[in-house]
Design a protein that fits this description.
Helices cover 50% and strands 14% of the residues. It is globular, with a radius of gyration of 25 Å. This is AB hydrolase-1 domain-containing protein. InterPro entries: AB_hydrolase_1, AB_hydrolase_fold, AB_hydrolase_sf.
């Protein structure tokens, strides 16, 4: 009888040990999957509508692809529209850093995998800078790029002694922005948005996009952005380029001079200024903007 009891006790302990090991394995697997999922979040999200020649639309910093909706509503009647939203913005999950190089490579891979030869790239602000980076890669065989208030080296415009190597994630400015309370950041976003559009409703929308952005992506992603200097890469671009610049707040003369300086390595391009418009041209001058985009697309067949 004693032997039977000892056997049952031993068997029970063995079962408990097996169950404990099984639970540890399951927990470990779940943890690993969770970490892997975070590391493998997509750098870009693309929504495709319409049929025809491909048009890839890349929004600016913190801005979701929804900004292109009024334009896409018209373009999708004749074109296949690929609307991009970047990781960390518009409610999309954040990714590991460095952020912008992953975004750039993902867009390149997307174009190649979907065989978007002769595609038109339309990019606003950061999106235009990314479009410029893509256009310098002859492997992609793009058709043309349309840049809206976008520069190849924004950091060089902001800093007289610009040196990309000096721009790092761990900086007092970045630390300060990460440490901001929600209330302080909301005030900061509100002030920033006022200079980006002439329309009050648009300013609120821009502020909301900034507030919805993942804070680390906002801070470190912006560092990636202003580090990027494509002025030498402009020499590699062989496709048509149209640049639409906003007249406000600096005026036509200064805007023209800035763009001439930044794009002097580009062999040829068409340049136009959106009158009475701040940075978000598509929000300040929507009818004019739509008309110009349709004319540019039609001119390329």
């Amino acid at each position: 009888m004693c032997n039977i009891l000892n056997f049952l006790h031993l068997k029970r302990n063995q079962n408990l040990e097996i169950m404990k090991n099984f639970i540890l394995i399951v927990v470990s697997l779940l943890f690993t999957v969770s970490i892997y999922a975070k590391l493998e979040n997509q750098p870009i999200y693309v929504e495709v509508t319409g049929k025809g020649k491909p048009v890839l639309l890349i929004p600016g910093f913190t801005v979701p692809g929804d900004i292109w909706k009024p334009l896409v509503k018209e373009l999708e009647k004749k074109y296949e529209c690929h609307v991009v939203t970047l990781a960390g913005f518009g409610g999309k999950d954040a990714i590991e850093f460095p952020w912008l190089p992953k975004v750039n490579e993902s867009l390149k891979n997307y174009i190649l995998q979907n065989d978007l030869q002769n595609a038109t790239l339309i990019g606003h602000s950061l999106g235009g800078t990314v479009a410029t980076w893509l256009a310098a890669d002859s492997e992609l065989k793009l058709g043309q790029i349309i840049l809206i208030d976008a520069l190849p080296a924004s950091g060089a415009l902001m800093m007289p002694d610009f040196n990309p190597d000096n721009l790092i994630y761990e900086s007092p400015y970045n630390d300060q922005q990460l440490a901001m309370s929600d209330a302080d950041f909301e005030q900061f976003a509100g002030n920033m948005s006022k200079g980006m559009s002439n329309q009050e409703l648009a300013q609120e929308k821009i502020k909301d996009w900034m507030l919805a952005a993942d804070r680390e992506t906002y801070v470190y992603g912006y560092t990636d952005y202003i580090k990027l200097d494509l002025r030498e890469d402009l020499k590699k671009i062989e496709i048509p380029v149209t640049i639409i610049a906003a007249s406000e707040p600096y005026g036509k003369e200064m805007v023209t001079q800035t763009y001439e300086n930044q794009y002097k390595n580009l062999k040829d391009y068409t340049f136009m200024i959106a009158e009475n418009s701040a940075h978000f041209v598509m929000l300040d001058q929507p009818e004019w903007f739509l008309e110009q985009i349709q004319i540019i697309l039609a001119s390329q067949g």
